[in-house]
Amino acid sequence: MAAKSPPDSTPRRPVLSVSARKIKDNAADWHNLMMKWERLNDNGFTTANKIVNMRISEQFQDNKLEIACDNSATEPEKPTPKYNEELDNCCAELLETLKQMTKIQMKMEKLTSTTKAICDLETFHHGAGNCKAPFFHTWPTSYFYEVCLKLSEMYKKELQLKQTIVQDIAHSADQDLMMVYLSSWLYQPYIDNSSMLLLEAMLLETGHRQC
Amino acid sequence: MAAMMAAPVAALRAWSEAAARAETAAREALAATAPLLDSLAALAAQMRAAQRLPWDATALGAFPELRARLWRKQRGAAEALLEQLGQRREELRAVRDAVGAAGSAVLRLVEERDPAELGLAAVLRRGPRCPSLADVLEGLQDVERYYRHLYLEIKLLLQRLSLDSLADVEALPQSWERILERYKEDDVVQDTLLKVSLFLENHHEVSCSPGS
């Protein structure tokens, strides 16, 4: 694999080892994936908001119909729920957003397993408990894996929450629940505020960000 | 007459410029406040919904710590909004201070004049298209009071805000709208700017006229 890698063509920078290069690329990938996730989250929120608004106005219409039926002297006939094409489109849109988020989360897991593999390779070469110099500034290789794992776990739990929201948001009749779904989608409770700090620290360590 | 009015006229010109700048800044700060209050009210509605929800009876019951985590995130977002509102409050404070300082400069200048030089008759002299200096000075004080009260309104509104009483936070846009309605009816800033500009125009004409 090392033989296939193109030689580093930027003479000003120190030549990184294959493992270091891989970790540096991983850090950039983490950044891109997290930014993409945020964009999808914003789009998903807009769609989920539309769904909730449609559901609430549907409920409002249904209540009005019920009152009208109660008041009429004729045989009360339960109105058949009509097909709402716009709601259906929004649900499809939200499902598509979730699909893309699932793909991102899978890529994040792959980045984590790659980092784990680099750690294992390091251990294989130098043995456990070695004092090998860090690839970049101060971080031992295992710390990259710890950070990747932390981030990956956050996004995994968040994705599970989003899956539940997507499954139920268009079927719930409870307005409080719909509002909590929306709020949970927007504020992403399982993604800690520290995630950005971890990412930035990783970018700084790998030289993507300058001090 | 023109000579004894020269210094107050120059100070009023400076006031006029400061007041126009302050009016723009105040308008911008007020325009930026409304959407922040709307967001805060929407967030309070979400927080209240989360408080009312029987979590364990819903699909979300299976998620550990979700309620506490969401609460923390919502509080964080609310605090960020409160911070932004605090910045708008500071902008209105700066407006109050700028208008106050410009007004005080004019009043000090007039007060420090020798009474013999700028007598009562001159101060009260009014023309068909020109307000008296006393009218203008009264307007300056009205404008200063207007911005002082406006600042106090937002200061008190934000001071009374507590994330522990979410129903009040949810009603914020209505409270703010009521405050603004009161101030919209008050044209004191525009009236005074007009008064000052008429005064300046008139004294410019007098000082430029051949016999002055």
From TrEMBL, chain A:
InterPro entries: Cyclin-dep_Kinase_2_interact (IPR023250). It comes from the Eukaryota. This is Cyclin dependent kinase 2 interacting protein. It comes from Junco hyemalis.
Automatic annotation (TrEMBL), chain B:
Pfam families: CA109-like. InterPro entries: CA109-like. One of its GO terms (cellular component) is cytoplasm. This is Chromosome 1 open reading frame 109. It comes from Junco hyemalis (Dark-eyed junco).
